[in-house]
Design goal:
This protein is an alpha/beta fold and about 325 residues long. It contains ten helices and ten strands.
């Protein structure tokens, strides 16, 4: 993107110059020089290096291109570390989290990796914890106290049902509870939602994701567990595969990211990736000086190539 895109028309000069150079070069080859004594000519006029001449022209044109781009005031994107943020961990505690396809169980492995994730977040970030079941609840409001966050995660216990949509609304409410800045603004928020099953109760998850998008709160979803996971419910073995399609849809609607974790190691790597994602803001930055520097560099090298054409090397 350019702040002055109308100036890019100057780039049309480049193909015109290339065409002119090709025409002049071919005409020069056809014309030749009238000199009867070629041996004397060889001693008087040194043969010019073709590749150095072409290189000088090419570098000059590159310099022109980059300088025109700089003149058009290009914009880039810079990743700037966030000074503050509120991260809400939404952790599934439905009965399916008792499955042991992720050792020692889905819930216990999720607890430990979530605690490790919280400890890696910048100290100034607020962390909130929401348990996701048929009755989602905020187990810890936004706080920078990592000890309290650890205790809240450790205290999670299995419950019935899974209301993903309702859990998203609870998480959005938790973000509003975060301390405001000196200017009265609420810190940027993000939701990390881990679920190993399908939505079985409450409001539509897609509706919750749409509300998160409206609030500018991305939801980073994790489809947790394997297709072969199972639990014993009321004396009957039930398969409890994750629902990756729903998790991906929630992430896409809200503007977050999606990942699948089939082991504690997978979950740990995903948390690291999410930490990198939520720790930065993308800020537009004018890169005129950068492109002008490229143009200057090409111009210097082109000048050196031109000087080498006229120099008589030993």
């Amino acid at each position: 993107m350019f702040l002055q895109p109308g100036r890019l028309w100057m780039l049309l000069v480049v193909p015109v110059l290339v065409l002119a150079y090709i025409i002049v070069t071919r005409r020069k080859k056809r014309t030749g020089m009238r000199f009867t004594n070629t041996a004397v000519l060889g001693r008087v006029v040194r043969k010019q290096s073709q590749w150095r001449r072409h290189l000088a022209v090419a570098l000059s044109l590159l310099s022109l291109v980059t300088l025109v781009l700089a003149w058009s005031r290009p914009n880039g994107v810079d990743r700037v570390p966030r000074e503050r943020a509120t991260i809400v961990l939404v952790i599934d505690v439905s009965q399916s989290m008792a499955a042991t396809d992720v050792a020692p169980s889905r819930l216990e492995a999720a607890k430990q990796t979530s605690i490790d994730f919280v400890k890696t977040l910048p100290e100034q970030y607020n962390v909130a914890v929401v348990s996701m079941s048929g009755n989602p609840a905020t187990r810890l409001g936004p706080t920078t106290d990592r000890t309290m966050a650890t205790r809240a995660i450790q205290g999670l216990a299995l419950q019935d049902s899974t209301a993903i949509g309702d859990a998203i609304y609870v998480a959005l409410s938790a973000i509003q509870m975060a301390p405001k800045g000196d200017d009265g603004s609420i810190a940027p928020g993000a939701i990390v939602l881990l679920s190993d099953g399908q939505n079985t109760a409450g409001r539509s998850p897609q509706q919750g994701a749409a509300q998160a998008r409206e609030d500018e709160v991305p939801i980073h979803t994790i489809a947790y567990g394997t297709e072969n996971g199972s639990v014993d419910l009321d004396g009957k073995r039930e398969r409890v595969p994750p629902d990756p399609a729903l998790m991906r849809t929630i992430a896409e609607i809200s503007g977050g990211t999606y990942a699948a974790a089939e082991s504690a190691g997978d979950l740990s790597r995903i948390y690291q990736s999410i930490r990198s994602e939520i720790g930065y803001d993308e800020v537009k930055k004018e890169t005129t000086a950068t492109w002008a520097g490229y143009g200057l560099a090409f111009a210097v090298v082109a000048a050196l190539a031109a000087v080498s054409l006229g120099a008589r090397w030993p």
